[in-house]
Amino acid sequence: MTRTWTLELAKIDVTVNALVPTALTRMGAGMPRSADDVATVIVYLASKESAGMTGQAIAAGDDRIARWTRPGEVADQLRPSGWTTSSVSELFAGAYADRPQDFRPAPFGLEAIGSI
């Protein structure tokens, strides 16, 4: 959605960014976080200093701010006769079997190993 809005609203000079808050929830229990962590990023994005920054996904929480990449096409398969459940299953068991993306972020303080 962010990518689509970024492209559509660029025509009228409107910037669009996604904020990925990491706030205090049951899932994050034990990790001290505050709404202030997210608020500072929102204030920045609403300021003149961020003019021109658009199409970004920014995670904020605790002492960490991260910029995420957007998904990009990594493989392509065409099937002129269309796809069936069986042919999709064969694709993911065969040609796409070695292409899953790692969806887990690197642990805090550690660099990601390899590329996604």
How would you summarize this macromolecular structure in one to three sentences?
With 116 residues, this protein is an alpha+beta fold. Helices cover 24% and strands 12% of the residues.
Structure description:
By secondary structure, the chain is an alpha+beta fold. It folds into 2 domains: 2-70, no CATH class; 72-101, no CATH class. It contains 3 helices and 3 strands, in the order H-E-H-E-E-H. Strand 2 and strand 3 (64-68) form a beta hairpin. The chain is flat and about 50 Å long. The protein starts with a helix and ends in a 23-residue tail after the last helix. InterPro entries: NAD(P)-bd_dom_sf (IPR036291).
The portion of residues forming beta strands comes to 5-15%
Radius of gyration: 19 Å
Order of helices and strands: HEHEEH
Helix content: 10-25%
Q: What is the mean pLDDT?
A: 78
Q: In one word, what is the shape?
A: flat
Counting DSSP H or I runs of 4 or more residues, the number of helices is 3
User: What profile does the largest beta sheet have?
Assistant: 3 strands, mixed
Regions with little confidence, pLDDT below 50 for 5+ residues: 112-116
- The assembly state of the depicted protein chains is single chain
Spatial strand sequence of the major β-sheet: 1-2-3
Distance between the termini: 21 Å
Structural class: alpha+beta
Count of individual domains: 2
State the total count of DSSP E strands: 3
